[in-house]
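Example record

The entry below shows one chain as it appears in the dataset: sequence first, then structure tokens.
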Amino acid sequence: MKLAKKTLRATLTAALCATGLSFAAVAQAQAQNYPAKPINLIVPFPAGGTTDVLARALGQELSKTLGQSVIVENKPGAGATLGADYVAKATPDGYTLLMGAVHHTIASSVYPNLQYDFQKSFVPVTTVALVPNILVVNPKVPAQDVQALLDLARKSPGKLTFGSNGVGTGQHLIGAQFQALGDATLLHVPYKGSGPLTTDLLGGQIDMSFDTITPVLPHVKSGKLRALAVTTDQRSAALPDVPTLQEAGLKGFNMGTWFGLLAPAGTPPDVVSKLNTELVKILKSPEFGQRMAEIGAVPIGDSSAEMAQRIKTDTDTYAKLVKEANVKVN
């Protein structure tokens, strides 16, 4: 009887080991053959914004290097969380990816009923780019600089409006910080993305925004919008004559936006590694760097671990800002 039990145990153990090896072999084979079909790259904002522009530029280059189409699909809504939720629930095989952003680290503190955990439901691939945000106003606003704008806001609290990509997004938090450090009150108007936001800003439906530089850059250069300051601690090479908010008198102000590629948790490490390798090559190339400079973006191309640390740091940092600014979903 004991011998039979030992034999059975040994047989089961061998079978389990064989099964494990077969699964590993299948996963390795899948990674070697990846990609064997088109890849869907989900953008959680409408077309026309920085996330969309970066995704399409990167997707175009990635299609060339991988030999498969990269299909960009916009799934906006709920402060970029709808698109993220879609990817979190997708099959973790490398064929559904998310163009995420700093907004997702903020959403963790703003949306109490998220169906995913941004730090656990995804595996970072690489940070794509850093993009400064910029304070721009419609020309009908008489202020020619930041201090004049703050004076207007203080005289009529809540009258001047600023748009953002949604409640709890980076633009919203930057606007909240601007009000706190500038001792002024503005009326927040959330949108689903930079496209509709920019349209209303150009039309004068709202007074200003703290959007990323990419969607507003051509309008600043054409004179349709007036740039007052960038929100990072360094000026932007795309608009070198525009001061920083620190230079304009708001000491310590340093907030920008990063964008990065993520895959659902459970995606084979070899697939993530292959994506990272190809993406870093693209992001480090002089040609792509020039393309990014034209839209005010700085390409990064870090490791998966480095992006994971970026996400953790920003999640902790923005959790404090959200609490201080009392940002809540209506």
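Notes for this example: The radius of gyration is 23 Å. The first strand starts at residue 39 and ends at 43.
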